[in-house]
Amino acid sequence: MFISPAWAQAGGAGGGDLLTSMMPIVLIFAVFYFLLIRPQQKKVKAHQAMVAALRRGDKIVTGGGIYGTVTKVLNDQEAMIEIAEGVRIKIARSTISTVLTKPEPGAAPNAANDSGSAQQGGGGFLGKLLGKK
Fold first, then answer.
1. Fewer CB in 10 Å around end: N or C, the chain?
2. pLDDT at residue 133 in the model
3. Using one digit for the tens of pLDDT, what is the confidence trace for 73-98?
4. How far apart are the C-alpha atoms of 20 and 88, rounded to whole Å?
5. What strands lie across the sheet with 67-73, from one edge to the other?
């Protein structure tokens, strides 16, 4: 009555073989793998390599947004960072989100960041304009 005679004779509405019915599931998994899973695995490996290469003197940002300088790498899980003059905290190395700068071996601190150089006339464009050395 509600089903046409052609559908009734076919033996059901589904039909089809196993490969045809599994193809959409396989395609969805492939899309998820290449667009979500694989890039996330690469990101995790890059973060692990960054944390493993952490050394004293590196300027970092933690996951909580705290800027600091690594003063000591305690072990595989912990590091000591200095967030202000004389203020040191112990953090988990896995919480480090970014390494901003790496120190050059044997290099002196950058004099351009010292507060005294700006008061002495400094170099730069404005100092040259005003005739200061």
1. N
2. 56
3. 999 999 999 999 999 999 999 999 99
4. 62
5. 87-92, 78-84, 67-73, 59-62, 96-101
Amino acid at 20: T
The angle subtended at Cα 55 by Cα 54 and Cα 59, nearest 5°, is 80
Type of residue numbered 88: R
Q: Could you tell me what percent of the chain has a pLDDT over 70?
A: 68
Task: List b or e across 72-87, with b for residues whose CB sees 16 or more CB atoms inside 10 angstroms.
Answer: eeeeeeebebeeeeee
Give the distance, in angstroms, between the CA of residue 115 and the centroid of all CA atoms in the same chain.
32
How far, in Å, CA of 107 to CA of 117, rounded?
Answer: 18
* pTM of the complete model beyond 0.90: no
Name which of 101, 62, 70 is nearest 88 in CA terms: 70
* pLDDT value of residue 117: 44
CA dihedral 77, 80, 81, 82 (to 10 degrees): 170
What residue type is 115 in one-letter code? S
